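Anyone up for a design puzzle?
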């Protein structure tokens, strides 16, 4: 018999915005345990966004994250020897996790001098409904829409 699932430890809010979501984003941005570097990158990116737009950078980041958050996704399920892509709703925790990961991934793939530049450009693009992360969300939704005929296979 399997052991009990590990409890999720509560995350401390970040020092500047006092937001747990920002802490989560910074933790995902971090490489090799260098949290101070990821903090600097994130705050620099937010400052650059606020300079470019003239709005609050934090609010633009929240809007970008909301724009990138998926509502449905497809999951593979094997039924009678065939594998079907079944559209399912995304859990709330997974929604935020996916949106954070997509924003960071597509920011890393962008062209730019520093990671703060890349991240700020991706945040700006996502807040306007453009960019790689937004395209990924749209592709995910399109895939779910194309496979909605198999929705009755849902558990």
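Challenge accepted. My sequence:
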């Amino acid at each position: 018999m399997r052991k009990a699932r590990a409890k999720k430890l509560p995350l401390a809010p970040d020092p500047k915005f006092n937001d747990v979501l920002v802490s989560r984003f910074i933790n995902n941005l971090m490489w090799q345990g260098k949290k101070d570097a990821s903090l600097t990158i994130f705050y620099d990116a937010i400052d650059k966004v606020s300079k470019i737009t003239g709005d609050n950078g934090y609010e633009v980041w929240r809007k970008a994250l909301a724009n990138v958050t998926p509502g449905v996704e497809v999951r593979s399920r094997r039924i009678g020897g065939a594998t079907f892509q079944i559209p399912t709703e995304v859990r709330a925790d997974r929604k935020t996790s996916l949106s954070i990961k997509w924003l960071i991934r597509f920011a890393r793939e962008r062209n730019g001098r520093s990671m703060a530049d890349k991240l700020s450009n991706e945040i700006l693009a996502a807040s306007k409904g453009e960019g790689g992360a937004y395209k990924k969300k749209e592709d995910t939704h399109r895939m779910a829409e194309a496979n909605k005929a198999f929705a009755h296979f849902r558990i």
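A detail worth pointing out: Residues 64 and 127 are 4 Å apart (CA to CA).
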